Structures are given as structure tokens and as C-alpha cells.
Amino acid sequence: MRKIYTTIVSLLLGLGTLSAQSVNFGGTALDNDILHWGDLYNLSFTTHSYGTARSMAMGNAFTALGADMISASMNPAGIGMYVDNDVSITPMMQFTKSPMEGGVPYYDKSTPKRDRHFSDHTERFGMASAGGVFTVYRSTKALTNLNVGFVYNRIADFNQNTLSASYGNAATSSMANVYCTMADVDGLRPNSEGRLIFGNDPYLWGATAAYKNGLINYDKEGENWFIDRISPDAVINQSSSVETRGSIGEYALTVGFNFIDRIYVGASLGLQDVRYRRNVFYGESYNYPDGYPSGDTYPYQLDYMNSMQRSNISGSGFNFKLGVTARPVDWLRIGVAYHTPTYYSLALRYDVDMWSETYSAGSNPEDYDVGKDGYMYNEAYSGIWEDSGSYSWRFRSPSRLLVGAAVTVAQRLIISADYERSWYQTTHLQYAPIDVAHNEWIDEYFQGSNTIRVGAEAYILPFLPMRVGYIWSGSALRKGFEDVVFTHPLPTEESIITAGFGLKFNNNIYLDFAYQYATTHFTPIQTFYAIDSYDPNLDIESEIFSFKTMRHKAVVTLGFRF
Fold first, then answer.
1. Average pLDDT over every residue of 94-120
2. Residue 196 backbone dihedrals phi, psi, to 5 degrees
3. Are 122 and 160 in contact (CB under 8 A)?
């Protein structure tokens, strides 16, 4: 079992894992060995922007409108509004771009071809919605009909790339300095043979790999870590790429009741499937514009180092949804739904790979195995760490309340609007394999978030409905924290513009199309930082970057009613 983190950070320094001497480590290239509290928020963040082409084109403002597959994941009372059996499938193409200033990685001979495929955009094919709703009871009594639905809806999507690069940095801003400090304050020590063994504490795997690649070294007499392959005169070029993949899909078993075509009541059991993968590449190259240092002073000189960290989160969750919709008059519908928290159980897999190139500029005093070209190449791979089974991560996401209204005008125009409240401050880590202060930070940083969805549908021709919509979601971070640098970037405000149309071929077959353009803003990011709470002169920081994500979604729904 992993080493227990023993320190609790203060508010101003609570952005990462803290060492025993109050040095706050964080950044995208660190803290990937655990399910971070920021990950809990990212896994919980949703604006309910996916669904069928009809619902997506109308901004998913379907809390009151109903009679759509998205109802199973928003307001299950809408399942009771179906008057026919309905089966549909909604495939999706998604294009995501995450531009960032200086966001082109620094590629030269130091970057192997295997790591030159990164870009700041992704193209993904997936499933937005699929399922069926069936009428199992119909009568002329108070209970007019009873419907059941088996529906899949995508809840969240994590497919995006971010790139950052910084050139001409001082040697003191190297990642080697961070690993050196981390090894010192956390008591990392070589054994009697001068070897560091990958142990069962993946928090220190980065520092261990740095030692095996020559970034840091240990002075037995002084009992401290130091850097002896990077001269203080070095100029460092840094680049980083963060690639995330995966999604959360919900499989909903839903039942909807229709009482005299005026009151609709529904309930859903949602089973969620979580797939989230994060690959973090980081590289440095070391240059000397004023000439390389003497081989007598620096007999071994690093040319570059590259590292790759892989985190794979998978698991499942469940929740319940209850909803009711009233139709007091034919032209008005009012809906309310409550979503319980989703209770997740997640496994985490993590591994580290680091490789480097060092030039032997002196007489090779350590008698290393140096090639004929004067270089030696090192690589350290950690193997895979896994938290699973009884050591899995378990947490609950926020509960949500949805309220909506829909108005029908002359049987040719529908206007609908939703309001959603999500209590992100109630996100709670229920169990972790190690002792972490996630719940304290969630309480400190988060508040309730508001989401507004509006949509309209107009029948230009009896077989041709046109649709538009808009979704806006506010920040869940408390005031003043939107510009704070956290270990991992957190989504804040999101806005989505939607449009689409439908084709009704006959009473049985329909085809709907939709397009969405989403803009999501994030908190700033740093590749790494090591902040000393007592002496700011000892702080080690990479450059700060800001970015946003633009996401294009094109979906089509093919449906059959019978």
C-alpha cells in the first residue's frame, strides 16, 4: 500500500500534494499517481449537452418537453409522454481544438518519433444516444399508459489535447530541480549499492526515474540531492502535451406513467460506465549558447530528457432520478426532476517512462557504458501500479435539481427553457487507498453551479421542423478561484450554441440532424511548481498558460416509431 501523505496544506498553498517540509508540489506533470480532487470535479462536470439530434439541436431543454430519449437522463417523467413505441440510434462526430499560446511542442532530435504525434485537436467518432421506449400498458382509465425505456446517453466527454512550450528558460527552472527538492524533502535515499529501487510509492516514481536518468544525484557525505549534469549556464527548452481520452456513458432503466394526459411521473435507475485516460508527456532539452561547459567540471552533460506518465481511470457508478411533469392546459408543460448523487467506484492504473541522452564530455570518471559517439542513453520504466478491488477509489458526485417549462404555439412552434442547479461542494470522496485531504479542498473551493438551457422548434413544413438552442453553465468555483493555478485544469464557464432540423418520412421513420458549437473555459495551468512556504527564493515554477476548448459536434438520429 502506498505511503500515506502526512501533511495538510493551507488555503494559499493547497494546490497539490505537500511534502513534510511544507513544499507544495503540483502541475500537470505531477500528482498523476492518484485520483486527484480535481479529477473528482472533472468526472462530475456535465451540462447535459448530449442526447438525440432533436434534443441537442434544442439545447437539451427537455425537462418539461419530454418524449425523447434524453428524458431518461434528465426528467424520466418525459418517458411517460410517449404514445408509440420508439427505437432510435444517434451516432456522433466530434472535433475538439484546445489552442494555447506557445502551444507548439519543441521538437528536435531529443524527441523520439514515437512522441511526435501530439496535436492540439482531436477527431472522434462515438455514440451520443441509443435506446428504445415501449408501451407496456394502455387504458382509458386514470392511468392512461405505462412506458418503459432502455436508453444509453453520453453524459460527459474527455477527448482533448493541450500543448504548451516554453523556450530559453534558466537552469533553475528545470524539472530536475523539482525532483531534486522532492527527493530531499521526502527522504528518498539510494541503497548501499547506490541504487534506487522502484517501490510501492508511485508518488516518488518520477524522482526515482530522474535519478536513473542522471537528472539528479545523491551526495552521501552531505546527505542531500544535487544536480551535476546540467550547468547553471544552461538554457532550457521545455514542452508538454496532455492527452485525455474517454467518456462517461449512462445506461438508464426508466419507467414513465401518464395520468389522463395531464400528469406524468417517472423514475430512472442510471448505471454509468467511466472510461478516462490521461497521457502526460514532458520534455526538456539543454543548450549552451555561450559554449558548453568544461568536461573537467561537468564530465557528463545532459542533452535532453523526456518522460511519459499514463493514468487510466475506469469503473462504474449508479444514481436515481425522479421527475414529474404537469400539463395544466394543452399549450403548457411544467417539469421538475431531482437527480441523486452518482456513487462511483473507480480503479486507477498508473505508470511512468523516462528516457534521456547524456554526452560524456570528460574522462568518464564513473566508468559508465558510453557509446562510440560519446553518448549514453538511459531509460527507466516503472511498470503499472493499480488501485482496484478493495483499494479502489470511491466518491459521490453532486446532486442536481432541474426545473423547466415548455410552451406550444398553434401546434407549429415549441419554446422550452430549463434551469439546473448542481451542488458541486457536496462532491465527497468516500474511500481512498491513501490518506488525502480531498474533501477539505472541495469544501473550500467549490459552490453550487447554475445551468440554463433554452430551445425552440418550428415546423416550416409539416415534415420539416427547424430547431435552435443555447446552453450556458456557470463556474462551480467560488469567487476569486477561477484564475488560481491548480494541479489539473478545471472547467469553469461553458457556452453551447445549437441548431438542427428533422425529416419525417412517414408516421414511422424519422431522421434528425444537429450541430453544436461548445466553448469551455479552464483555469490556468502549469507543467510543474514547487512552492516553498517559508522562502519564496526557493520556489521552482514553469510558465503559466491559459487555454479554452472549442468543440464541434455533428450528430444524426435515425428513429423508428411503431
1. 64
2. -105, 125
3. yes
Is residue 4 assigned to a domain? no
pLDDT at 118: 57
Structural domain contains residue 9: no
- Tell me how far apart the alpha carbons of residues 469 and 493 are, in angstroms, rounded to a whole number: 17
233 within domain boundaries: yes
**How much is the CA Rg of the chain, to the nearest whole Å?**
27
As for how many domains the chain has, the answer is 1
The mean per-residue pLDDT over the stretch 69-90 comes to 97
For position 104, what pLDDT does the model report? 57
Distance CA 396, CA 250 (A): 15
Report yes or no on 509 lying in a domain. yes
439, pLDDT greater than 60 = yes
Enter the pTM of the model: 0.88
Cα–Cα distance between 70 and 61 in angstroms, integer? 10
Q: How far apart are CA 539 and CA 522, in angstroms?
A: 24
Q: State the residue range of the domain holding 180.
A: 17-561
For residue 223, what pLDDT is reported? 86
Which residue in 179, 198, 181, 178 sits closest to 190, CA to CA? 198
**pLDDT the model gives residue 472:** 97
DSSP state of 297: T
**Residue-averaged pLDDT of the chain:** 90
DSSP 397: -
Task: Read off the CATH number of the domain in which 344 is found.
Answer: 2.40.160.60
pLDDT interval class at 15 (50, 70, 90): very low
Q: Which residues of 28-42 are buried (b: 16+ CB within 10 A; e: fewer)?
A: bbbbbbbbbbbbbbb
